[in-house]
Design goal:
By secondary structure, this protein is of the alpha/beta class. It has 10 helices and 13 strands. 49% of the residues are buried.
Length: 271
Amino acid sequence: MRVLVVGGSGLLGREVCRRGVRLGLSMVGTFHSGEIAVPGVVARRLDVTDRVAVRALVAHVRPDAVVGTPYRYDDWAVTADGAAHVAVAAAEVGARLVHVSSDALHAGRPMPYADDEAPTPVHAYGAAKAAAETAVRAIDPGAALVRTSLIVGEGSKQIQLCRDALAGRATLFSDELRCPIDVADLADAVLELVASSYAGLLNVAGPDAVSRAELGLLVAARYGLDPAGLKTTTSAASGLVRPLDVRLDSTRAAGLLRTRPRGVRELLAAP
């Protein structure tokens, strides 16, 4: 099976490529400004905002499956339009599509979110992810759409943000809850879905709900850093409009997939 990973130079995309090679799959990954550097992966440069280029590359590679992971936090064209371009191109060659979405499209509430709940974005990034989902579902009703949470692991921006907050260079929210997932666990789940016929939305997140501030303390314990310097705030105090309590109910995924995402407390247990 040939699998094209659009966004193969990102944290998740690179891990999907790496684990796909181990499974004996033929992996092709795209990059824009970074690099993939995974042995056995064919790398191709791609600008997902260029619809013609996306269609041309997919037509050339002719993958059996496409995994869409590209995003840019402050760029609608990459996050929303890019997802639509990938979906169109995948459909044109009859490729299985697994699109990676985010819990950022929810506003937050006191109870967990089920898989099929409609987006309620409160900021531009969440709106872009919601638009991406709408486009993908309209273009390819058979696609799998993975809603996930904060991705942690070696090289994770989330872990680096915690390190920066512990050093006083950034601030973490104490009232913003998420369900972090390890990048390797998420990659395994995505590859399971590549080989499946599952269609529609699926929450794939870790079992532990923690605030960003709690995540910072876990990082401090794991890497032997001083927790006393951790800078925290609340959404109200910051003046920013952000999703707060966004917990994903991943019960459906637990019944569907062999992969069992580990909780962040286990992942970051002090050595």
